[in-house]
Amino acid sequence: MSQHTEHTGSADRPDADHLPPEGVSDEVVEAVGGVTAAFEVVEHARGMLFAFHRLIGRADAELSEALDRLAAAGHPEIADELRAEVVGRNVLAGRWTFQVVEDFDAGYYRTFADAERRTRDRLVAGRRHVYESQLKERNRTHGRPGHESRPEA
Question: What are phi and psi of 149, to 5 degrees?
Fold first, then answer.
């Protein structure tokens, strides 16, 4: 008897939310998956932008603390010069990092997010990760523990 017997339970099939709607071709599913994959790169970049925002804030605070120590160590004029020049400085013309994040979110990010969602709504009934679900079904070892299509309900 094979140790890799085929399961027929619900966990061995994708849920309906990850199947293409009736009549949607594999080519359309793959293309929509590509749009989503591109948006996921933007999501990654957005995370890096937030990391940049946090890191610049941390650097500003650490510099301020270091300048306090420099002043206390007998060099207040150098500390004051650096503080005036760098602490609280805009990272881009007229902008702190929170403004960069807000502009990105309100512009490019929101436009791309809306376009990706509209594309899924129009072509795959709004379903997410249909292409990835198909890819998983092609690549997993059906019936093997740890290779279930989804968690048991």
Answer: -70, -35
Structure tokens at 31: 């293309």
Tokens encoding 66: 């270091």
3-state SS class at 95: strand
How many angstroms separate the CA atoms of 54 and 56, rounded?
6
- Taking each helix axis from N to C terminus, what angle separates 26-72 and 130-139, rounded to the nearest 10 degrees? 100
* Contact (CB, 8 A) for 17 and 128: yes
pTM of structure = 0.83
- Residue 87 makes CB contacts below 8 A (sequence gap 6+) with 60, 63, 64, 67
Per-residue pLDDT of the chain (153 residues; tens, 9 = 90+): 333 333 445 668 889 999 999 999 999 999 999 999 999 999 999 999 999 999 999 999 999 999 999 999 999 999 999 999 999 999 999 999 999 999 999 999 999 999 999 999 999 999 999 999 999 999 999 999 999 999 887
Interatomic CA distance for residues 127 and 116, integer angstroms: 11
CB 17 within 8 A of CB 127: yes
Q: Could you tell me the CA-to-CA distances from 41 to 22, 46, 117, 133 in Å, in that order?
A: 29, 9, 15, 19
